[in-house]
Design brief:
- The strands form 4 sheets. This protein has an 8-stranded mixed beta sheet, covered by helices on one side. The chain has a 3-stranded antiparallel beta sheet with strand order 1-3-2, with no helix packed on it. Strands 5-6-7 form a 3-stranded antiparallel beta sheet.
- By secondary structure, it is mainly beta.
- It has one domain.
- The structure holds zinc ion (2 copies).
- The site of one zinc ion has 9 residues, from loops.
């Protein structure tokens, strides 16, 4: 009887945190914008309804079902190799990054060439350009009293390139609508190569306990980890808080420490839904590149570059 009770418990308890992912039916994030921290949504500081983006919906988007087929998305072709210059160092209670934003993996050919199939949905005219990024983050971040809204640029990944939030310029699901290369990156107007989720060109390594390894840092200093949770289970947004993270023991600066961290997921908003710790607007500007020139070119890059409106 006790065995049966235990079995029953296992049967109902085990699947609670286990999610299969169907990349052919990812939930479309359009409209999942909130004005306060909300699980599965994004609390963006700002969106520009007139911002640019992909010209037409790709055939992989199924608006009536509210899903998109990630496996059918157009991928910008090319295997362009860059010279990254990414240095991370610890100095006291600061973690300092310098980067030219060029990734440690090949990219597609940008601007998207008219001969590229991807051109039919997205004519991204921007080229990838070397940047000069310096970012200083707290090495031991602490949670703020209240979460903060997410600006357009939210972090830096260990590829050396920057992470933007899940939205394109007009506030739609950037993964569903924008066309990216095979590492899910592309440049915005000032040539900043960026992702809208954690690139699959970082191997999502599992640590000994099954939890994902670190893949980057958010601008509040907290770590961003891959898609696997504490028991090696695939996480979805519903397993995480509104900012897309949780707290438990993780390796941090060479020790195991119970602390907050963000996770990547396959489902919207993919990474940060808001900031759990305070961030410096200077760092947002540093990784966003020079301000986009309004009314220039047929498309924007990726939205809400700026700091909070106030
Ligand atoms: Zn975790
Ligand atoms: Zn983008």
């Amino acid at each position: 009887m006790r065995f049966l009770a235990a079995l029953f418990f296992l049967l109902i308890a085990a699947p609670a945190f286990a999610h299969d992912v169907d990349l052919t039916k990812l939930p479309l994030g359009d409209g999942k914008l909130s004005a306060a921290p909300t699980v599965g949504q994004i609390w963006a500081c700002r969106v520009d309804p007139n911002g640019g983006g992909a010209q037409v919906d790709g055939p992989w988007i199924n608006k009536s079902a509210g899903t998109f087929d990630y496996t059918k998305k157009a991928v910008v072709s090319g295997q362009v190799v860059w010279k990254p210059n990414f240095v991370m160092s610890l100095a006291g209670d600061k973690r300092i990054f310098t980067s030219n934003d060029l990734p440690n993996h090949p990219t597609g050919i940008f601007p998207i060439q008219p001969s590229d199939l991807a051109y039919q949905t997205d004519r991204n005219p921007n080229s990838i350009r070397e940047q000069s990024v310096t970012v200083t983050l707290p090495a031991n971040p602490v949670a703020a009293a209240q979460p903060l809204c997410a600006p357009g640029a939210v972090g830096i990944l260990l590829t050396g390139s920057v992470l933007f939030n899940a939205l394109d310029a007009p506030g739609r699901d950037a993964i569903a609508h924008e066309t990216q290369d095979s590492c899910q990156g592309h440049p915005q107007q000032s040539g900043v190569y960026h992702y809208h989720w954690v690139t699959t060109c970082i191997d999502d390594k599992k640590l000994a306990d099954g939890h994902s390894a670190l893949v980057g840092y958010a601008l509040d200093g907290f770590g961003i980890f891959g898609r696997y949770g504490e028991k090696g289970e695939l996480l979805s947004s519903s397993d995480l808080d509104a900012c897309h993270g949780h707290s438990h023991a993780i390796p941090w600066n060479g020790k195991m420490v119970v602390m907050y961290h963000y996770h990547a997921t396959w489902d919207f908003p993919y990474t940060l839904g808001c900031f759990r710790g305070a961030y410096d607007v200077q760092n947002v500007r540093a990784i966003s590149g020079p301000p986009p020139q309004r009314g220039f070119g047929p498309r924007g890059g990726s939205g809400g570059f700026g700091p909070p409106p106030n």
